[in-house]
């Protein structure tokens, strides 16, 4: 029985951009600066697509919370192979104060509504380095979590995950539905082909 | 000393050994201790290099095809020092090899015999940038990438971009009228040079360093120096018009099954991308595979095929740059011009895809000794030359690859043949003069952007008529009567 996956993608300042602090020191310059999908989310999307190619998953749904520009990021996810994309619109002042807890609640609600078997997220976003969303989604849903995944094997509604820990790695087994967050060595994301 | 050189750099014998017909002219004096003392007194410590090990890198070119035997390298910091050096060399008839970043590909940047190397690497103070005119005035010894980073702070960019940007200096770029990746967008470097400060062979200063867009007063004396490869005078400062940096950039990398499809895609790109088009480059299968191997990329980003084309767009908004590229991708796919492709989704992918094209030269050097050719040809005939060369090289077992790639948008083909076991006279004579005569028959250029340097000076007459040659030699005589600047290069060398 093929599973259904919800993948979170965040629109963040591009990894290769040189960050500049605003002159009034209130934050970093984001106006006119190149934004793209958070690199760890690219890895999460890649893993979801690979699971679909292996016929372990039957559907991959991408989700992003933020202003209208997030649709660009969602379009990238679709180009990479996601089947559907959900944009939770949060704009203006609300977006400026949007924190991982609120995002976790949103993702948890969608995960329940869409009745997915797996929530795949990047381990952290490179703009805030919070590393909280995956863990909080699991907590809110009371689902098991396997974070900092560097290898994922799914069979019979169970996931065997090798995760990065201080001092090396450990392998754990979790029952689905579960939350998994992607670490750097999980895979090498593909280029979006025409 | 001689044998130390040969042992260490075994893939490139001395130029004078490789070209036995070239003879060091008796016209030039030999360096004496008195001369070295003069320079040591003139310049501060560190600016005079006489140790053979330290001189070695200045004596050999980047692609390891030439090796000279200079025993003296001078690295002045100021124009006055350059003037004093040349005044002395002029008086004592010492030959000088002006050297910029030493990234040249025609063997023009290193000494042939024992010419004194005049290096500009220390002359690197970035001058002023005028935000209203977009003009940068700077020393000739500044690294291109450093200058680009500097003007980007003001929202501008350098008018050229090439793979060697981390090492090449702007003085050398101007002296060779460097082409690069964005001629399609910004035009030739020549059109961006607004002023030059030049030191002539006798040490006198020719000040054409205005930074004006328009100045129609008399004969524009700086023009002959652009692209003259150091034979008319030495460039010490440059005033360049720098275009605005476009925040919106898009990159598409496509695969095609034939060269005709490549040309169709290029024509389509010109129509659809219009004013946003900023680069059009192509690679053939062997270039692509060598490049991926050099970058240690096990997987091809797109479905492999016989040819690849890279299209870049730039616009004041990200949306517009991406939109024209997406329209091109969809149309090219519909019309079946391309079989697969990818559009860079973020800056990292943008850099990764560009690296496949930009780092081709190092991939070739890693593959063996490189016979490097740079031609301007009608696009419809371009790949025919590569195919005929492949046929011609078939009987040679030590030929590894015959590769074609280049600035398709400028009708510029880079044809490279990689060979194992080092340089081969046999292969060289099979390639030359056949290649050059082929190009001359098509009325192409024997050197589109690399210049003539040492390797190609003898083919100048295939490209330019008698009258042009006569006038060029007269100009050389006028600017450098004692012929001390970069001898043996560019103009066909006549043995004394």
Automatic annotation (TrEMBL), chain A:
Q: Which Gene3D superfamilies match?
A: HUPs (3.40.50.620)
Electron transfer flavoprotein alpha/beta-subunit N-terminal domain residues? 25-194
Q: Which GO terms describe its molecular function?
A: electron transfer activity
InterPro entries according to UniProt: ET-Flavoprotein_bsu_CS, ETF_a/b_N, ETF_b, ETF_beta_N, Rossmann-like_a/b/a_fold
Gene Ontology CC terms:
mitochondrial matrix
Primary subcellular site in the record, as a coarse category: mitochondrion
Annotated keywords:
Electron transport, Transport
An example GO BP is: fatty acid beta-oxidation using acyl-CoA dehydrogenase
Q: Which domain of life is it from?
A: Eukaryota
Q: How does this chain assemble?
A: Heterodimer composed of ETFA and ETFB. Identified in a complex that contains ETFA, ETFB and ETFRF1. Interacts with ACADM.
User: According to its UniProt entry, what is the function of this protein?
Assistant: Heterodimeric electron transfer flavoprotein that accepts electrons from several mitochondrial dehydrogenases, including acyl-CoA dehydrogenases, glutaryl-CoA and sarcosine dehydrogenase. It transfers the electrons to the main mitochondrial respiratory chain via ETF-ubiquinone oxidoreductase. Required for normal mitochondrial fatty acid oxidation and normal amino acid metabolism. ETFB binds an AMP molecule that probably has a purely structural role.
Indicate what this protein is called per its UniProt record. Electron transfer flavoprotein subunit beta
Origin organism is Adineta ricciae (Rotifer)
TrEMBL record, chain B:
Tell me which PANTHER family the record gives. Answer: D-2-HYDROXYGLUTARATE DEHYDROGENASE, MITOCHONDRIAL
Q: What does this protein do?
A: Catalyzes the oxidation of D-2-hydroxyglutarate (D-2-HG) to alpha-ketoglutarate. Also catalyzes the oxidation of other D-2-hydroxyacids, such as D-malate (D-MAL) and D-lactate (D-LAC). Exhibits high activities towards D-2-HG and D-MAL but a very weak activity towards D-LAC.
Where do the FAD-binding PCMH-type domain residues begin and end? 66-245
A Pfam family cross-referenced in the UniProt record is FAD_binding_4
Gene source species: Adineta ricciae (Rotifer)
Q: What class of enzyme is it?
A: oxidoreductase
Phosphoprotein: present as a keyword of the record?
A: no
> Recorded GO terms, molecular function?
(R)-2-hydroxyglutarate dehydrogenase activity; FAD binding
Q: What SUPFAM superfamilies is this protein classified in?
A: FAD-binding/transporter-associated domain-like, FAD-linked oxidases, C-terminal domain
Record field: catalytic activity: (R)-malate + A = oxaloacetate + AH2
The cofactor named in the record is: FAD
UniProt entry tagged with the keyword Ribosomal protein: no
Could you tell me which InterPro entries the record lists for this protein?
FAD-bd_oxidored_4_C (IPR004113), FAD-bd_PCMH (IPR016166), FAD-bd_PCMH-like_sf (IPR036318), FAD-bd_PCMH_sub1 (IPR016167), FAD-bd_PCMH_sub2 (IPR016169), FAD-linked_Oxase-like_C (IPR016164), FAD-oxidored/transferase_4 (IPR051264), Oxid_FAD_bind_N (IPR006094)
Provide the protein name.
D-2-hydroxyglutarate dehydrogenase, mitochondrial
- Please give an example of a GO cellular component term from this record: mitochondrion
Q: Give the residue range of the signal peptide.
A: none
